[in-house]
Design brief:
Blueprint: E1 4-9, H1 14-24, E2 31-37, H2 43-50, E3 54-57, H3 60-63, H4 66-79, E4 84-87, H5 96-99, E5 106-110, H6 125-134, E6 138-145, E7 155-162, H7 169-199
Parallel strand pairs: 1-2, 1-4, 2-3, 4-5
Antiparallel strand pairs: 5-6, 6-7
Helix pairs in contact: 1-7, 6-7
The chain binds glycinamide ribonucleotide.
């Protein structure tokens, strides 16, 4: 049986697309069975629908509290029998109440070389702005397991990307995605799925 994957998104979903493409090219042995967004307008939802993947929208505002939001997520993940959760541009922090339920089963892609430019407040273009402000010459992307510390879980894979003269947060974001994130995330997801398959002989 294939490892059941859920991808959690908030925005454009280019990393989700990289996972969908990897699955199509049989580079991913797990199966993405559910995409959950915390933003109704996320283009990632369209990408999922186009690929025939079930989608759900869970809004923190409608849930009323962080705890209720996380309970709703857990309900959905349980209903779909999800074994691996991938945060692909999911722009909200999950507390220990959630992360402790899935030890080494939640992956996140972060657009810098952790431990630089990470933790609370570092997301999306802000990460690239911070790298440019600091003046580093090399940045990159990191895929890591998610625990209760924002961007603090065990690192699975990293890839370096050079900063070029004249880079803006937007040009740098695009290069980090192209050269690192879209390659690294499907590879790391496959590493985790393959490991789970080894542990479970029924798979
Ligand atoms: C990606 O660059 C991802 O690494 C980043 O947001 C972007 C989402 O793009 N995630 C974070 O900053 C999380 N801290 P996408 O929706 O096109 O995949």
């Amino acid at each position: 049986m294939k490892t059941k994957i859920a991808v959690l998104v908030s925005g454009g979903g280019t990393n989700l697309q990289a996972l969908i493409d990897a699955q199509g090219e049989t580079l991913l042995s797990g199966e993405i069975v559910l995409v959950i967004s915390n933003n109704r307008d996320a283009y990632a939802l369209e990408r999922a629908k186009k690929a025939g993947i079930d989608t759900a929208v869970v809004l923190k505002k409608e849930c009323g509290s962080q705890a209720a939001f996380e309970e709703k997520l857990k309900e959905l993940l349980t209903a779909y029998g999800i074994e691996v959760i991938i945060l692909a541009g999911f722009m909200t922090i999950l507390t220990e109440n959630f992360t402790a339920c899935y030890p080494k089963r939640i992956l996140n892609v972060h657009p810098s070389l952790i431990p630089s430019f990470c933790g609370e407040g570092f997301y999306g273009l802000r990460v690239h702005q911070a790298a440019l402000d600091y003046g580093v010459k090399v940045t990159g992307a990191t895929v890591h397991f998610v625990n209760e510390i924002p961007d603090g879980g065990e690192i699975i894979a990293q890839k370096a990307v050079y900063i070029e003269p004249g880079d803006t947060p937007e040009t740098l974001q695009r290069r980090v995605m192209e050269q690192a994130e879209w390659i690294l995330l499907p590879q790391a997801a496959e590493t985790v799925c393959a490991e789970l398959q080894k542990q479970d002989p029924r798979k």
